[in-house]
Write a sequence for this structure.
């Protein structure tokens, strides 16, 4: 009988140690020197320690086997790490993996991966109780060249964000996108809702106010259906002028832009990816603003609330030559 309980105990401890490694339960330790399995069976401290060592080995082997199988199935290292550390946001940045604890003070999104599907063209659709609740959109710039917006509309595109202004990450020069007005007029004429975005590389308050005033002036005489978006990105270049900004610097610049366009009568929104949201902005200071998140895996990994998800940078849409960013507005 004791032998059977021994195997039972090893199995339980193995599972416990496996769960400890993957970080999905908390363990409350018993301070007693003996473990009582049933009224008739007890183990000494030495026996318990031996069983725990054996269970640790089995738990370790179980975890390693799971990791090996996942990698062999084509999953990336970071996707495996994400599954093993659900209490963290895992970010591949600065030549290492960063583990950022999820902030439980921030509102979480309520998206259910089971409600996400792909249509016949491989585009994401979100449904609730069998009814589609999402909208399909794109974001474009002069990189897409001349766009046939009627063909884009016929492809089912319901909204578009158009680059209005961008600043050079090296020179700091502020430039109006040469296709901005053409794209606004073409998209709206085709019956597509339009918003615009500003690719910012501002490093001080004067520059971010310049970006805001430039886009406001550019839009004089035009009506937008959607927000003006502050696109705050880290450029992967060691010489990028924004590399010296602190988290508070970036947060302050973001707030200044959003408040400026809001005060001018426009809807504000900001765009960020995983690294920017987890490590380079203080989201606790930006809770009142709508958010547009960029992440290119088919999962709702980003835990906090957002309205728009840019889920691909290599999409294809009739009427546009080459790749285009694909977006889903989650409602």
């Amino acid at each position: 009988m004791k032998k059977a309980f021994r195997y039972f105990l090893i199995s339980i401890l193995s599972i416990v140690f496996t769960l400890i490694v993957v970080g999905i339960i908390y363990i409350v330790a018993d301070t007693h020197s003996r473990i009582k399995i049933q009224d008739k069976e007890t183990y000494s401290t030495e026996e318990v320690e031996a069983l725990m060592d054996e269970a640790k080995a089995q738990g370790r082997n179980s975890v390693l086997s799971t990791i090996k199988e996942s990698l062999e199935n084509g999953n990336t290292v970071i996707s495996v790490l994400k599954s093993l550390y659900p209490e963290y946001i895992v970010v591949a940045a600065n030549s290492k993996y960063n583990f950022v604890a999820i902030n439980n003070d921030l509102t979480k999104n309520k998206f259910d991966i089971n409600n996400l599907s792909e249509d016949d063209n491989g585009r994401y659709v979100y449904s609730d109780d069998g009814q589609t609740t999402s909208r399909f959109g794109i974001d474009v710039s002069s990189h897409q060249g001349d766009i046939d917006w009627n063909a884009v509309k016929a492809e089912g595109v319901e909204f578009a964000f158009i680059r209005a202004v961008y600043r050079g990450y090296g020179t700091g020069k502020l430039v109006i996108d040469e296709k901005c007005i053409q794209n606004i007029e073409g998209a709206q004429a085709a019956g597509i809702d339009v918003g615009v975005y500003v690719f910012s590389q501002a490093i001080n308050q004067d520059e971010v106010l310049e970006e805001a005033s430039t886009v406001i002036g550019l839009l004089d005489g035009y009506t937008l259906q959607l927000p003006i978006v502050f696109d705050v990105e880290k450029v992967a270049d060691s010489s990028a002028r924004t590399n010296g900004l602190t988290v508070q610097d970036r947060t302050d610049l973001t707030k200044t832009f959003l408040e400026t366009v809001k005060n001018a009568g426009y809807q504000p929104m900001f765009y960020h990816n995983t690294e920017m949201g987890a490590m380079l902005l203080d989201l606790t200071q930006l809770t009142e603003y709508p958010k547009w998140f960029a992440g290119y895996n088919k999962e709702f990994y980003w835990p906090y609330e957002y309205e728009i998800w840019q889920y691909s940078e290599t999409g294809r849409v009739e009427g546009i030559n080459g790749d285009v960013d694909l977006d889903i507005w989650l409602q």
Q: What stands out?
A: Helices lie at 2-22, 45-72, 77-84, 149-154, 180-189, 205-218, 247-263, 274-280. The two ends are 58 Å apart (CA to CA). The first helix runs from residue 2 to 22.
